[in-house]
Recover the amino acids of this structure.
């Protein structure tokens, strides 16, 4: 396990109290907290070398450009990419998928082509493909989810065909925690020369990732789910793929020359970075990558396996609880969805909040998957490198409080309360 | 903390949640109005019959959290026998209560009054308001027809 006592000292927010109780932050699949190294990098940039990048002739602008471009190199290394020229900075992972669906899809998809997704995709890896499908006449197909929350790969050979032009799958489900065997899927898809896009929003923050081992063409992820600031996303794509694609957004920075009626494009990756990017955010994201690299992603993963195994054991031991997703902590990430029977997750979430425990309750931007699971909503606890077994215990205790609160005998409805203020 | 929770989940609310009043469909309803809260997945459908400008019967179906379902149950109970105008006033009074404005004292809220504590939980106000918005819009659309 990681030295959480030491790690937690780096995260100012973790010493907060909520409703008089210590904050137990278990909504890391939504966004993670930030270490002071990341917060300091934002302040430092704005206090010491704020300037627009790639165009100033003065030293300040050069400093900012160098710091920004250094994070591109660092990002490439973090995901084992052969070159930083394949790394495009966006606002978030969602924008990354939209970039691919538009810039690649517009010129590569036509009527009759197929886009293969899975039943466990986040809306952000579904809706952009729906939009480009309706614009091009392509159709969507889905790899099914098994009852125990894994992907049913036995039907993959039937789903793939020469019509399959792109396969876009999550590396890790944000609802079930399931880790998807993307390597196997990529190999099968490439036999049909389909483009393979990986949604790494949940996977990259929690797993050691190497794009060359995964065998994908594209990997997208978000900085804010891995200790970085909001407003920064990454698209990594094979350089020649980026070269072959038209731009996504037009504007400053992404051009080589502009005439009244036409333009030529800047080199990759800058061709895809129209307008002033989130310079401060990207630079601070570099500190997040440094932080994760210093701990080691193998260690982060081991910590989360142990914590998830403990959480699954404790949660499953409760009465009247349904826990979703694979039972084997080694086959899944650190997001655990569950429901207390008879209680709506929003009501559970409100009681937990009063106990200082922050979890997510709802459909987790995966409504089709919720329907597949036959539930309207779930509660979800998701862990990260600073979470502890004590916090899992506090979650379980708070669930006990919720159960007791709603089970308590109530006065009959004939007793009318006067509550008007 | 339990005191704060008691203020949100009053006994009357949990009673309506566990034993909802006026739950079910009305096959002869003149007005059928449905709605959902896209963030949490709460769903409600209201069925209303109208006679002489008044609501005859009111029923609802749906699923969701205790607050959304109890609010629907309490509202359905209050609707029967009221004119469309009276319903509009009732709902406006509830919305005022949520905004912290002084409500119209002459409006009898019935059990709905127990939802006053929801105001202190801003993220849950939309749960309580789902039923009100559906009925408000359903009547507006229905009356125009």
């Amino acid at each position: 396990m990681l030295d959480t006592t030491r790690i937690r000292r780096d995260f100012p927010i973790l010493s907060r109290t909520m409703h008089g109780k210590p904050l137990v932050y278990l909504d890391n699949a939504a966004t993670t907290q930030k270490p002071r190294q990341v917060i300091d990098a934002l302040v430092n940039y704005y206090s010491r070398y704020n300037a627009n990048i790639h165009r100033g002739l003065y030293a300040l602008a050069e400093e900012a450009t160098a710091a920004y471009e250094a994070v591109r190199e660092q990002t490439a290394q973090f995901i084992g990419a052969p070159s930083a020229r394949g790394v495009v900075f966006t606002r978030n992972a969602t924008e990354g998928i939209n970039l691919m669906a538009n810039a690649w899809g517009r010129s590569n998809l036509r009527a009759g082509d197929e886009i293969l997704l899975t039943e466990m995709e986040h809306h952000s890896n579904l809706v952009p493909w729906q939009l480009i499908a309706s614009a091009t006449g392509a159709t969507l197909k889905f790899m099914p989810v098994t009852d125990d929350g894994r992907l049913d790969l036995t039907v993959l050979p039937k789903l793939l065909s020469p019509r399959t032009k792109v396969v876009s799958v999550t590396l890790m489900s944000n609802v079930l925690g399931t880790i998807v065997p993307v390597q196997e899927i990529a190999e099968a898809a490439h036999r049909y020369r389909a483009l393979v896009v990986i949604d790494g929003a949940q996977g990259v923050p929690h797993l050691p990732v190497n794009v060359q081992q995964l065998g994908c063409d594209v990997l997208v992820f978000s900085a804010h789910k891995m200790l970085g600031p909001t407003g920064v996303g990454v698209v990594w794509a094979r350089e020649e793929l980026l070269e072959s694609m038209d731009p996504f957004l037009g504007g400053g920075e992404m051009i080589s020359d502009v005439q009244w009626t036409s333009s030529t494009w800047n080199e990759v990756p800058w061709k895809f970075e129209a307008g002033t990017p989130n310079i401060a955010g990207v630079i601070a994201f570099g500190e997040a990558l440094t932080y994760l690299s210093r701990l080691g992603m193998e260690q982060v993963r081991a910590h989360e396996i142990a914590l998830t195994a403990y959480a699954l054991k404790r949660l499953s031991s409760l009465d009247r609880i349904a826990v979703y997703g694979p039972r084997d902590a080694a086959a899944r990430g650190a997001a655990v969805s569950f429901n207390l029977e008879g209680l709506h997750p929003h009501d559970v979430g409100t009681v937990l909040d009063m106990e200082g425990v922050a979890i997510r309750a709802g459909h987790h931007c995966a409504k089709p998957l919720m329907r597949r699971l036959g539930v309207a909503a779930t509660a979800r606890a998701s862990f990260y490198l600073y979470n502890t077994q004590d916090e899992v215990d506090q979650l379980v205790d708070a669930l006990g409080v919720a159960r007791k609160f709603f089970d308590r005998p109530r006065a009959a409805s004939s007793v009318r309360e006067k509550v008007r203020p | 903390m339990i005191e704060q929770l008691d203020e949100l989940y009053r006994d009357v609310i949990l009673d309506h949640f566990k034993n909802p009043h006026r739950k079910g469909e009305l096959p002869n309803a003149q007005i059928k109005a449905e709605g959902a809260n896209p963030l949490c997945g709460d769903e409600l459908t209201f069925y209303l019959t109208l006679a002489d400008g008044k609501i005859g019967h009111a029923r609802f179906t749906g699923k969701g959290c205790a607050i959304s379902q109890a609010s629907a149950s309490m509202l359905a109970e209050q609707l029967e026998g009221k004119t469309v105008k009276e319903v509009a006033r009732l709902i406006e009074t509830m919305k005022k209560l949520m905004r912290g404005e002084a409500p119209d004292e002459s409006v009898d809220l019935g059990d709905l009054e127990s939802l006053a504590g929801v105001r202190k939980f801003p993220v849950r106000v939309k749960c309580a308001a789902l039923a009100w918005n559906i009925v408000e819009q359903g009547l507006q659309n229905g009356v125009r027809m």
